[in-house]
Amino acid sequence: MNKEKLFYLITYGCQMNFHDSEKMAGQLINAGYKETNDLQQADIIIFNTCCVREKAEEKVRGKMGEIKKLKDNNPSILVGIGGCMPQQEGVGKKLLRQFPFLNFVFGPHTLDVLPALIEESNEKQVLALKKDKGDVPILPVKRKSSFRAWIPIIKGCENFCTYCIVPYVRGKEISRPMQEIIEEVNQTVKEGIKEVVLLGQNVNAYGRDRGEYSFPLLLKEINKISGLARIRYMTSHPRDFSYNLVDVIAKLDKVCEHFHLPMQAGSSKILKKMNRGYTQEEYIELIKYIRKKIPHSSITTDFIVGFPGEEDEDFSQTIKVVEEFQFDSAFMFIYSSREGTPAAKMADSVPQDKKKERHNKLMNLQQQISLEKNRRLIGKDVEILSEGSSKKESELIMGRTRTNKPVVLSGFLPPGDLAFVTIKGANSHTLFAELTETP
Ligand code: SF4
């Protein structure tokens, strides 16, 4: 029996990975382990990794020195690496060779047997990496938040953007049965959850593997659930984001007016090389339609700069789109070649200093736009969902608008409570407010 054995989970990457960690914790607690937030106290240390960019992998490798010291001091500690990193072709074996003190290595398709893996690794080193088994097992979940629940609706991705490793590690698209998702949301609302975030590498493809796109229908069904305040979803793919979906969202009171639509590049030539499946014009028409149908919505995006073959003219297309269409905010990355992706075979033609120069230019421009857009909200009353006390300043409260803008305010508002606040100030990332009234 594993009485009193403590496990420490460290997670990198996307929300899907953070939810996978909630499933790992749920299983381990059911198996009699206890979670600790103190690495020094841990009997079992688990890294849930990401490989979407080189940096994410470097962070894990950078931690191995510290872990080796812990194991040298206490050889009975078990250490495991899971998630997308070891699921890449040959990487699991490589990690065991590079870090022989590791006890178990597993992937996104074997996290449902984690307790057994840990048991087995008491005897010998375990490598459990299976290709996608084509199912989405229902697992116990230990949710991190008391008011927000991550709800996976589809796993895997078959869009094969040329720079992306996800389809090779997360496997093919598998949508969960709609009834199963609705039951899970109902259950979470009974447990006090106010906001659900529907998760998928490409949520808009929900149902495609079952022969019919049904993300709009799923939203309609979840919107009927009483006691639920807000519905969010991530990540969307502009190619699969239909106008009909915009029309449906415009009529659903719980679906938040925030659209995260990764554009990735402004130039249609580069979008083609990325295999994104839409042109600059098609993307622009989509956000124009959203703004016509839901004028007060926020639109955020992702950009990759320095993709192979990106000329000055291509980059100026990105700048033009950002200047003209004014995103509320954007995640901006420098292209990172991922072994095993088609783009990795393309000549990485943009010099590193040029990549940095473009990245800085885009960051500065977007920061200015985000600041101006946030400042336009000063004096406005907006509804926030409280996330409890701020991590940075515990006497302050953090909340989030329906347009997904972080808000900081003084006073007391329990996590999960809704309230109206008046915006008093803003910077490019955060709004500063005072409580107006509690509805
Ligand atoms: S849609 Fe493209 S970028 Fe997103 S996970 Fe799928 S392949 Fe990767």
Overview of the structural elements:
The protein has helices spanning about 15-30, 55-75, 90-100, 115-120, 165-170, 180-190, 215-225, 245-250, 270-275, 280-295, 310-325, 350-375, and strands spanning about 5-10, 35, 45-50, 80-85, 105, 125-130, 150, 155, 175, 195-200, 230-235, 260, 300-305, 330-335, 380-390, 395-400, 405-410, 420-425, 430-435. The model has no long low-confidence stretch (mean pLDDT about 95). The strands form 5 sheets. The chain has a 6-stranded parallel β-sheet, sandwiched between helices. Among the domains are: about 5-130, Rossmann fold (3-Layer(aba) Sandwich), CATH 3.40.50; about 380-435, OB fold (Dihydrolipoamide Acetyltransferase, E2P) (Beta Barrel), CATH 2.40.50. By secondary structure, it is of the alpha/beta class. The protein is globular and about 60 Å long. Helix 7 (about 215-225) packs parallel to helix 8, helix 8 packs parallel to helix 10 (about 280-295) and helix 11 (about 310-325) runs parallel beside helix 12 (about 350-375). It is built from 12 helices and 19 strands. Strand 4 (about 80-85), helix 3 (about 90-100) and strand 5 (about 105) form a beta-alpha-beta unit. The longest helix has 24 residues, at about 350-375. The protein binds iron/sulfur cluster. Iron/sulfur cluster binds near residues 157 and 159.
